[in-house]
Design a protein that fits this description.
With 126 residues, the chain is mainly alpha-helical. The chain has 7 helices and 3 strands; from the N terminus they run H-H-E-H-H-E-E-H-H-H. It is globular.
Length: 126
């Protein structure tokens, strides 16, 4: 008996879509990690503009990345263009006692090295 594909048609469609979207979700995570977004947000709520200034990246590109990461459940919208860490993004901080940063960077650098680097470069161009 197979674990995958055993559900209803709607469930199977959802499964295939989720698997297909996995790549861009991983790419977004890789970019957030490479930029160090969670580390900077350890200081508290920040606007996209302030965060972009601290990271020396494009505000528009960073805002788009942050909105995507909020939709994926990583980072939290604090209102009025503010963002903060949540329980998931706290695990991406380098100084967190249970950090998943080295693991995620290792996996993502093996799977998506060129794509993540190019995406980071686009956001890093103010």
């Amino acid at each position: 008996m197979s674990v995958l594909g055993g559900g209803s048609t709607a469930t199977n469609v959802e499964l295939v879509r989720e698997l297909a979207h996995g790549r861009w979700k991983a790419q977004a995570l890789a970019v957030a990690l490479r930029l160090g977004v969670a580390d900077v947000l350890a200081d508290g709520v920040m606007s996209a503009g302030e965060l972009a200034s601290r990271l020396e990246v494009s505000e528009d590109g960073l805002r788009r990345l942050l909105r995507l990461m909020v939709a994926l459940g990583v980072f939290e919208d604090a209102g009025e263009d503010g963002y903060r860490n949540n329980a998931a993004s706290e695990l991406l901080r380098a100084d967190h006692p249970d950090t998943l940063r080295p693991f995620a960077l290792r996996v993502l650098s093996t799977e998506y090295p060129l794509v993540a680097r190019r995406s980071s470069d686009r956001i890093a161009t103010p």
